[in-house]
Structure of TauD/TfdA-like domain-containing protein:
Amino acid sequence: MNFYKKVIFTNAEQTQKELAEALRNNKVVHAANYNLDISIDEFYEKFADSIGSSYNVNEDIITGERVESRWIEISFDPAIQDRYRTAKTRQPLHTDDSYAELNGQQNVQFFFCKSKAPLGGATTFFDLNQLVECFKLDGEEELMDRLFSTDVNFEKQGSKKVRKILDKDERGYLSNWNYYCIDKDNTEEALKLVEDFHQYLETRIVPAGIVLPAVLEVGEAVFFHDDRLLHGRNSYFANTKGERCLVKGKIIFNDEYLAGGK
């Protein structure tokens, strides 16, 4: 798969067609320059329904418990600064479904912008091909080998998943990673690996300035194959509630789309 593609809005029908095609072979797809006369929510709802079904799972902002909802708002709230969803802090590189077992359902995640921060707040993406290259350039093959061979238990609010942090299939590299969703029930080897990888990302990858920043204007969206890259967020500046607001969704691809239709 290619890493990144930008699709420019034309009209609703043509843009939906171009987005659907781009998602087949690109890990990150940026839908740019929103120019339609329909609501932002309506466009993305119709597009999602044209290629699959929504994964209607949200998390209560306070308890973290799962609740049913089509969209998840990631919106600044000055009163809640101890949650990534509402804080203006940087979010480390991770995968969203680190603890959620989807049982092989093929899917894509996306954010669309309802309100842009005055400054900062880019969603950041890092290609796993480049991560492997970095390991080799740094002489960190031993760390890389451990990531490909060690099972790690991830957990949040009772949802559990066991994966290797890095893996590979016929389409390329895969990742399952969130430093803040590590189950206490792990081997010493796995816990040591978690700390080593976290430190490598924070001290080598992020400071090197090699992650891709995607700053979304109102109406724009970024789609990404969650398990084929790492993503995070730059910190941002905002003062009032909702001043920065992204809406998150997940599409489970339908059989027609997977077979090459749409």
Notes: The helical segments are 12-25, 40-51, 128-137, 141-149, 188-205, 255-258. The longest helix spans residues 188-205.
